[in-house]
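User: Please predict structures.

Assistant: First:
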Amino acid sequence: MENNKDLLGAGLSIGGQALTFLLDDSMYALSISTVREIVDVSTITTIPRTPDFLRGVLNLRGEAVPVLDLRRRFGLQDCSLSPDHCVIISELNTDGHKVTIGTLVDAVREVVQLAEDDIKPPPAIGMPLDTECIRGIVRMNGDFVSLLDFEKICAASGVVNAIKRVQQTKHDMEEAEAEEK
């Protein structure tokens, strides 16, 4: 059996904390070390020529933050936004720079404490998404919770490259506005 420390990767070790959230009827979790904050869904501005799963950008205290729609990324059916929907703000280190990303989820549940022994390898079949994006499976209150690897989700879907294009577009728009003045 694989060593649980290998499953966890950076950011979650024995006694690590994770933020649980819902997508559709399934519970997922992210290492709390990747979470900067949680915000209500505000106006998300769509950006042309971006992948479908990149919902757009939201204004977070003057910063344009790209929003990844996990429902779309995982191939789940779209749903109407409700008051429970929220955006998990995370930071990724890529090419020596921090990239801020918002992740749209159906609802945030709680921060939980995870013991290393509770985390099991994901099954090879029957998972709703690529098992490379899952660090492990945890059983909580009779249900299975998929512990996600946020960096691999972003890398596998080209999110970081799409975000760089969005940031370049934003930069180009700001320069064009400055030249008009």
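Second:
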Amino acid sequence: MKVLLEHGQLEVVIRAAVERGDWVCAQESVRELCAAGEFERAEGVMAPFVALGWRPAVWETARILVRAGQVKQCSRCFSWRCPPRKDGWQVTDFADVGRPSLAKLVQQTGTPAVVAFFLDSDVGFIEALTPDGMSWEGLLNRRLATSYEIPLEQFPVEPAVAGAVAWSAAAGLTPDEEAIRQTLAGSALFAEELFSALLVALGLPGAT
């Protein structure tokens, strides 16, 4: 297969990946396509494997989106899981959320919402919204995010802290600003750990 690539036969390798379901060929095809800036084609190579629920293909698709500069689109690849909370706060698990669905959720419930998307438990993407349109977004586990080539400058800490504090207050909660800052700037073995700490910092009832 590498001999084929060395002789410029990328299309042959792509066909082997798509038509025969050859995972190694798919990985090599994606590497070559991304290097050439053909990110949409690279995502297409991964699509059949993603459709089968193959987790490595989901992660690879997220990496393609990152390399394409579409970091915030990674959220459509992942789901949100968290234990139930108290005092009217409800938790659910979405297979495909993204900002449009978040807006629809808030509109339908008339209540604030916060969602988290996890990239292989290494990195977390946070989005939050209130019924009056107040929103903020953040990144969890910045140290590990660099290994996914996620541009940290797209997720500055201080604006996220300010947005989180304002969102929490608008939701009728009592935020801990410094704890929020430490969570958004900190690191952990699993991004889910930071999300749990963030919920506590936001003041969600029963989050401890």
